[in-house]
Design goal:
By secondary structure, the protein is an alpha/beta fold. The chain is built from 15 helices and 14 strands.
């Protein structure tokens, strides 16, 4: 019988688990409802309701966007708070995570949609200066391995702001500093790197991102992601033109071919922030969720698991393109461990679930009175889903 027979589950494969009864809980956040650690805690409580002796290990995950630092902190990293600025220049306190000489920073903490004052978008004027301030603090603290998660940006400034935060200057033809945001890059004429943070040369910088868009054109940063940040068609065109000017300035400053810089896969990540990090900071790009799984010790935890439970707010076709649950499922499947997903809403059909490696998927909307109820009562419903999963996937190790 399928593990998802009956209400609350959707078929994806056969139930069961390999020897070893530990359930590894590796969910992402349920956006607008619960962070990843709270999701894992609710699922753990439900598993304990159904099987009090079942060993459970919590390993919250993320995909490089908002919640990435929280996942590292849940894995035991040390929080560090730095005074910085938000996407429109308002002061804020940004938290990053440290483990030895490695630092994990998320762009969303300083330049993301979630930290826009009043939630009001500023697609032409939002900048990444705050990210540069945090990166400078990371280098000042002696970190030599720097990982930057690029998801959730509110900006389309080509990373010019983050370079300013690291000590560079973006100048117009008269030698004056250009302003914040992508539109200001239409006046950019020269990038002065003389004041760039000296410790950057001795650091390894990695970018955690799953976006492969180039910088410019119909698949570029402005065209694809600008509308999500509040840009209309006219502003998208203006931002694209400003970024085209900016990449020429970057090419002059670094000696790189502007066309190669602009066309590189991932150059358009986070409104072009990925371009600045690779072209000037020497960063290398790696898949977001894969990087997070590596840094948070997921693979070590997986080696002792008999079942993995992952999830996010909505399990849909976007999940299959670099989102955390898909990355968790791929890693678990490679290790021969079955995976169950839980989401606020599930729109993937059984075939897509099976192909992605999910044995079953449980939707909170199947347990709630309506979609709003699934958000408001997410913790309670996740607890019920956890109990159902423990019942459907009993431990293969006898309890005493």
């Amino acid at each position: 019988m399928s593990s998802s027979d009956g209400p609350g589950g959707r078929p994806g494969g056969r139930p069961g688990g390999r020897p070893g009864g530990t359930v590894l809980l590796a969910p992402d956040k349920f956006k607008g409802s619960l962070d990843a650690a709270a999701v894992a805690a609710a699922l753990a409580a439900g598993i304990a309701d159904a099987d009090p002796h079942r060993p459970v290990r919590c390993c919250p995950v993320a995909d490089g966007g908002e919640g990435t630092v929280a996942a590292a902190l849940a894995a035991g990293w040390t929080p560090v708070t730095t005074a910085a600025t938000g996407p429109t220049g308002a002061p804020l306190a940004a938290t990053w995570a440290r483990h030895g000489a490695t630092a994990l920073v998320e762009l969303a903490a300083t330049s993301g949609l979630a930290v826009l004052p009043g939630g009001e978008p500023d697609p032409g004027g939002a900048g990444t200066e705050g990210l540069g301030t945090v990166l400078a603090a990371v280098l000042d603290a002696g970190c030599t391995d720097v990982v930057v998660g690029l998801g959730g940006s509110a900006t389309t400034d080509g990373g010019a702001g983050l370079l300013r935060g690291l000590g560079a200057r973006v100048l117009d033809a008269a030698g004056a500093e250009v302003g914040r945001g992508g539109l200001a890059l239409a006046r950019a004429d020269r990038l002065d790197l003389a004041g760039l943070h000296p410790r950057l040369r001795g650091a390894r910088v990695r970018v955690a991102a799953d976006v492969d868009n180039p910088l410019l054109g119909p698949r570029g940063a402005a065209a694809v992601y600008g509308p999500q940040k509040g840009a209309d068609a006219g502003l998208v065109a203006a931002l694209d033109a400003a970024l085209a000017r900016w990449v020429r300035v970057l090419g002059d400053a670094t000696g790189a071919d502007p066309d190669v810089l602009a066309g590189a896969a991932g150059a358009g990540a986070a409104g072009g922030a990925g371009l600045a990090l690779t072209a000037v900071c020497g960063a290398r790009t790696a898949p977001g969720v894969g990087t997070v799984l590596e840094l948070t010790g997921f693979h070590d935890a997986l080696s002792g698991a008999g079942l993995v439970v992952t999830g996010e707010g909505r399990l849909d076709t976007q999940t299959l393109h670099g989102k955390a649950p898909a990355g968790v499922a791929a890693a678990a499947r490679a290790a021969g461990v079955p995976v169950v997903a839980v989401a606020g809403q599930v729109t993937l059909d059984p075939g897509a679930l099976r192909a992605a490696g999910f044995a079953a998927a449980h939707a909170l909307t199947d347990l709630a009175r309506d979609p709003r109820d699934a958000v408001a009562r997410a913790a309670e419903l996740l607890r019920r889903a956890g109990a159902r999963i423990a019942t459907d996937h009993p431990s293969t190790v006898p309890t005493t």
